[in-house]
Design brief:
Proton glutamate symport protein, binds aspartic acid, mainly alpha, 21 helices, 477 residues
Length: 477
């Protein structure tokens, strides 16, 4: 990879992942400190009695006493939000064209539609297997730990009441979804674009993936002299985006700092404490998934999970601070290609498909959450109901968009599939944002593991190209 640190003075020579890690840690520390010590009384001390109006810059008589210090505090809030949002927008700006052009070039370079069919089948099968394994791990863990039986009825009702409105809004969205037809058909149909420009403009990643696959496959049918210029163009555009990603990594430490301050300052720490066992079960399950599923898979592919984790660090830290695997996609692809040594083709295919349909962390989280809510309401789930949960959660995780809280709307449908009380959703919403950070890291790691495994399969299938070695031998940045 390009060593951005080469432009620094020697005294500041820290690698990109280390600088991003420092940004995350510093942001966490500042955000948690604000969370603990900054309150409405702090605003009042600065002459601001209606903080919401003051931050929105609307005139309010209650804020007539606001002075220079209050103005400085507001400016700090605005600058933090601005930096975080600019970074998120830049990542989103790259994601759609990057997927489009890298996939077209990748598929066209396969040179044979049958190869596309084979890699597609392998990738989708692998994703479904890891998703189901994640759900099984979640179900076993939540049945053993029983976190729902460790929350008092009083706490449950308090938390449920506080978020009733949010649940109602999600329920309306879920009903609208259900009215569009059965989940599997709806999902398959929504992947088929009717207008390529509309799919691009809306940034509908699944449709963009399908469109790029079709265009790439179409290109393989052209003679080399007609195909070549277009493939070259796609590759050149790809390189431009790769350069932009390298540039973005420069501001990433500051951006993740701002993202983390924002999230940590707004965390409801009391709720997290009340649901501590539930949160620990989810995080424990995610770690278990790494050890029990990902490590053996990577090992079978002749690689080493630790190297994969170290190589994916920039993407994982971004996933943690943005809670969005779609926004992280450009960096995921860069890390998989440059740090794990996976070929351009496999990377573009597996990662862009993975960011849309492979969400192992989300699947595990939803399985645990569903049974947790059932336990909260003293509802015993039969084996049959738990099996229904496996099927419903698999579909839900496949259909969830890679954005913060993306899985929740589809999760309503999961709860309904086995008749779990929807009020319970309000309880987990309180900690959803926090757990989203952890599950998104696993969603991104799962895509990287998928890419390493598929790359190995492709190479052993006699289609090895002059590509660098897989992570057992390569040196991450
Ligand atoms: N935030 C997750 C992701 O982007 C999706 C979810 O579980 O809500 O991967």
């Amino acid at each position: 990879m390009i060593d951005a640190s080469a432009h620094y003075a020697p005294a500041m020579k820290l690698s990109v992942p280390v600088r991003i890690l420092l940004g995350v840690l510093a942001g966490l520390a500042v955000g948690l400190a604000l969370n603990a010590w900054w309150s409405p009384a702090s605003w009042a001390w600065l002459g601001v009695n209606d903080a919401a109006a003051y931050l929105a810059r609307t005139d309010a008589p209650a804020n007539a006493q606001a002075g220079v210090m209050a103005g400085a505090a507001r400016l700090a809030v605005e600058a933090t939000n601005f930096t975080a949002d600019v970074f998120l927008r830049a990542l989103r700006f790259i994601a759609v064209p990057l997927v489009l052009f890298s996939l077209i070039a990748g598929v066209a370079a396969l040179g044979d539609v049958r190869r596309l069919g084979r890699i597609g089948l392998r990738t989708v099968s692998l994703f479904v297997v890891t998703t189901v394994l994640a759900i099984v791990i979640g179900l076993v863990l939540v049945n053993v730990v029983q976190p729902g039986h460790m929350v008092s009825e009083e706490t449950r009702n308090q938390l449920a009441q506080a978020r009733q409105g949010d649940v109602a809004a999600r329920q309306t969205q879920a009903t609208a979804l259900a009215e569009q037809g059965a989940a599997v058909w709806r999902m398959l149909l929504s992947a088929v674009p009717t207008n390529p420009f509309d799919a691009l403009a809306r940034g509908d990643m699944l449709q963009v993936v399908v469109m790029a696959l079709v265009l790439g496959a179409g290109l393989t049918l052209l003679p080399q002299d007609r195909r070549g210029p277009l493939v070259n163009l796609c590759e050149s555009i790809n390189e431009v985006f790769t350069k932009i990603i390298h540039g973005l990594m420069w501001i990433a430490p500051v951006a993740v700092f701002c993202l983390m301050v924002r999230v940590a300052a707004g965390l409801g720490t009391e709720v997290v404490a009340a649901l501590g066992v539930f949160c620990a079960t989810v995080v424990g399950g995610l770690v278990l998934l790494l050890v029990v599923v990902y490590a053996p898979l990577v090992w079978l592919a002749g690689a080493n999970l630790w190297r994969v984790i170290v190589g994916m660090m920039p993407a994982q830290l971004l996933a943690f601070s943005t809670s969005s695997s779609a926004a992280t996609l450009p960096v995921t692809m860069r890390c998989v290609r440059e740090n794990l040594g996976v070929s351009e083709r496999t990377t573009s295919f597996v990662c862009s498909l993975g960011a849309t349909i492979n969400m192992d962390g989300t699947a595990l989280y939803q399985a645990i959450s569903a049974v947790f809510i059932a336990q909260l309401y003293n509802m015993d789930l039969t084996l049959g109901q738990q099996l229904t949960l496996v099927a419903a959660t698999t579909l839900s995780a496949i259909g969830a968009p890679g954005i913060p809280g993306g899985g929740i709307v589809v999760f309503v449908v999961v709860l309904q599939s086995v008749g779990i009380p929807l009020e319970g959703l309000a309880v987990i919403l309180a900690v959803d944002r926090l757990l989203d950070m952890f599950r998104t890291v696993i969603n991104v790691t799962g895509d990287a593991v998928g890419a390493v495994v598929i790359e190995r399969l492709e190479r052993s299938g006699g289609h090895a190209d002059a590509e660098p070695a897989l992570p057992s031998a390569s040196k991450p940045d």
